[in-house]
Sequence to fold (68 residues):
Amino acid sequence: MKLYKWKKGDGVTLIWMAIGALIGLVFGMNGIGLGWPSIDDLLIPAFLIVGFISFIGGIFKLFSKLFL
Fold:
């Protein structure tokens, strides 16, 4: 297994990723203090709704292939 060879500009990308993580941490901590819902509270229902709609669409697609 070869190790990753650093390329020009990788250090700048790494610094921006660290800055973004710190900004996200600050916003997250402030959000907890203000009583905002966490990202899990928003994403889990969204995925459940999309999954349910896909499931119902799959049933209709199956019935349309079987009976039409």
Notes: The chain has a mean pLDDT of 89.
